Amino acid sequence: NAGVMQNPRHLVRRRGQEARLRCSPMKGHSHVYWYRQLPEEGLKFMVYLQKENIIDESGMPKERFSAEFPKEGPSILRIQQVVRGDSAAYFCASSPPGLPDEQFFGPGTRLTVL
Amino acid sequence: DAKTTQPTSMDCAEGRAANLPCNHSTISGNEYVYWYRQIHSQGPQYIIHGLKNNETNEMASLIITEDRKSSTLILPHATLRDTAVYYCIVRVYNNQGGKLIFGQGTELSVKP
Q1: Which is it for strands B45-50 and B31-38: parallel, antiparallel or unpaired?
Q2: Residues in chain B closer than 8 A to A107 (CB atoms)
Q3: How far is B4 from chain A (nearest CA, A)?
Q4: Which pLDDT does position A39 carry in this prediction?
């Protein structure tokens, strides 16, 4: 059973461009979480999704950030009009139904905004 | 979710037991203690969790005091690959899932 997959692993964008980060949860997992880790800082929760539903988005910035987890395909974290302060590592985690609290993390996407 | 307090850093000799403390004096009766670790530049890794009884798995043991105000994660035979930041997280367990709130953690350095 493959682990949580994230792509790309590294992403470079110029200010004002869009960034799309993808997360494929482990097989059978229907819960997805996104976390952000700014340089030299701790991990911060961003959003929690189940298939086609956003359950908790209390950690998402109010503007430019959005997330989805469609019925088919990976979860997408989208950042519009990126700024330098968006440079960070973005981690996705998934958990299975019935055991939502054991979250399995992916390797992360390192976003660099020039 | 209850707040946790951990030492900023610790050292441990390779092959010895690493004992990582965590204080959670405001923990509620329905809150579990979770431990995760993050090896440099990698995604966090789940280690263990417990409510009030001591727990053991292939990675570690979790000792929770009787009053549940503190706990200790024990890595019985630390190796160099156990060098990482260890996070103690206290939160409610429910079937609706929920976010993990990471503190600053303990940076464990295992030395040869």
Answers
A1: antiparallel
A2: 42-43
A3: 14
A4: 86
